[in-house]
Amino acid sequence: MRLFLGDVYRITQRAGWPLSNCVEKYPELVKPYFAKLLKQLERDDVHVAVRRNVVRLLQFVDIPKRYGAVVFDAC
User: pLDDT digit string (tens) for 5-60?
Assistant: First the structure.
């Protein structure tokens, strides 16, 4: 997660795929990072691949109600 949320684009891009596999198998792992992931969706300075990978992760987890509007707006 540290690599995916980092500032180096290539590393972030490459960390997205294994992160997606981990979250698909163990969706509870994303809970402590949910707010940080949603901040990535709101940023204008991140590559579109980062946003795409965050949305891909969201398909495997139950979105808490308090974040529903943020996810809706970002998507």
Answer: 988 888 988 999 999 999 999 999 999 999 999 998 888 888 888 889 999 999 99
Token look-up 């994303």 returns 30
Question: What is the CA angle 39-68-12, rounded to 5?
Answer: 30
User: What is the spatial distance between Cα 64 and Cα 49, in angstroms, rounded to a whole number?
Assistant: 23
Angle formed at CA 50 by CA 15 and CA 73, multiple of 5 degrees? 140
CB 7 within 8 A of CB 40: no
Q: Return the pLDDT at 20.
A: 93
Of 64, 50, 42, which is closest to residue 7 (Cα–Cα)?
50
